[in-house]
Amino acid sequence: MRIDAMNWMQVEEWLRHDDRAVLPLGSTEQHAWLSLAVDSILAARVSEEAAEPLGVPVFPVLPYGIAPAFTAYPGTVSLRAETHLRVVRDVLESLHRSGFRRILVVNGHGGNDPARAAAAEFMGEHAGCRIRFHNWWNAPRTLARARLHDPVGTHASWMENFPWTRLAGQVPPAAAKPVVDTERLRAVPPGEARRLLGDGNFGGLYQRADAEMLDIWETAVAETREILAEGWA
């Protein structure tokens, strides 16, 4: 249940019998020929589809993350790591104050990984609170399913190219792109990163068949739902 489809009285009623909630984390950053909001779109959608049969409230995705390497690409927004962690902690504090005690953080952007430590710290400071930090795209079953279709899946490649992340009129190259040296990429400033990356794809095919992508997506939704339903022991 998306929180924007609820009022405070409905949330209060939910909390009388359950204390779960979902918080998606996204980013606004270059994704080559795909939407700048890929990470936010995917984190929100996998959260909503996973939670819907369970009735668990899903809060709005946090659309800005930690993406300093891409700031030479127009449209990218990057928060300082300390700012992102403070925002995530403030949101968790608000959810806890409302009465939520089991919170699934569904992360859609690798750069947001420092928030994992913030979640662990939060649990240490709030007895009885459980937070699961879930990188949906590289969770074990989802990643294994993706690798069955193609062992080379990277940022802004086919692996993030779903019908709902594409842009009308934008046609990516048909050929696979050579995989970038990510170690070198991490060691250079944003302008040089853009020169190394070109359009922004880290390497591999730009698009695969929709049937393959939907197969991966179904696995991702099921894996996320399983954590939300049973992953609190």
From TrEMBL:
Cofactor(s) listed in the protein's UniProt record: Zn(2+)
MF GO annotations: hydrolase activity, acting on carbon-nitrogen (but not peptide) bonds, in linear amides; metal ion binding
InterPro entries for the chain: Creatininase-like_sf, Creatininase/forma_Hydrolase
Lineage top rank: taxon: Bacteria
Keyword Zinc appears in the UniProt entry: yes
Keywords in alphabetical order: Hydrolase, Metal-binding, Zinc
Any GO BP: riboflavin biosynthetic process
UniProt record similarity statement: Belongs to the creatininase superfamily.
Name by which UniProt lists this protein: Creatininase
